[in-house]
Amino acid sequence: MKKLGLSLFLALVMALPLTADASENPYKKPVKVISGMAPGSGPGINDAFYADLLAEELGVPVKVVYSPGAGTIVSHNELLSNRADGQTILMSYIAGSLLSPAINKTPYKEEEFEIIGNYVGNVITAVVREDSPYKTLQDAFDHAKKTGEPLRMNVTSFYGIPFVSMIAATNHFDIPAKYTEIRGACPLYLERGDLDILLASPLGWLSYAEKGSVRALATMTAGPSLPGVPTLKEAVGFDAYGGFQTVIVKKGIPRNKYNALVAAHERVMKSEKMKEYSGRTHYMNYWATPEDSNKLRQEVKSYFIYNFKDPQ
Known about the structure:
alpha/beta; 45% helix; 18% strand; 12 strands; 3-stranded antiparallel β-sheet; 12 helices
């Protein structure tokens, strides 16, 4: 009996180092986060905020490198130029990693990336001047269809899923509409009379709404996102998807680092700091497991392929 007890004790002692190694944080060196947006832009600020929280969770410095251009295609190429060692991650917009590859607009394929989890997304909103005759988005649609006068609207990108949603809705209901690609569109375009409806995120128009100069008609999201503002589905009866980011890595990174990133990402997205940030900036929190994140992405991809009309 004593021999058996001693043998069991020695076996447990020998197993201890293995247990410690298995739970050890695999991150010892600084991590690089690639942002596909410019520093100081809304998404660029989001990415820097995420990097700070990720550094707290991983226990190593996390540096943000900005690599904007070509609808975030440049940043995806930047990720793929790095080794698959888990030291470089990308704050990816679905337009760059999923939608553009789906229509052969990129030199890479979506299979070259691996998902850590979804991040946050813009709540693109249809906004009009306070004195606009359109009380609802349906009013605007009805007026354009009756008079034949096109609704003048903006897009940041013809490949952005919220803008594809609005374009698809006007096409579906045969609503005359003219879309102009404008970077950084704001309510000034409404005030000058350049646009009838502005499509922009809350960060771009909320301060004007607080002054009483603009109001929101609908959001380009699948579910409720702004209090008192209907979704596109509720406003005119057409489904929509919001745009969002996904944290991705180059496929093939070590499994211990992949698992560590997935766990750290979940803690970041469920943290009180992230909840406060999302509430303050009105960015929707799209966190989900890698599997569920991919499921949503594939739904959006199918929607995009069905509704997208190449402006070229």
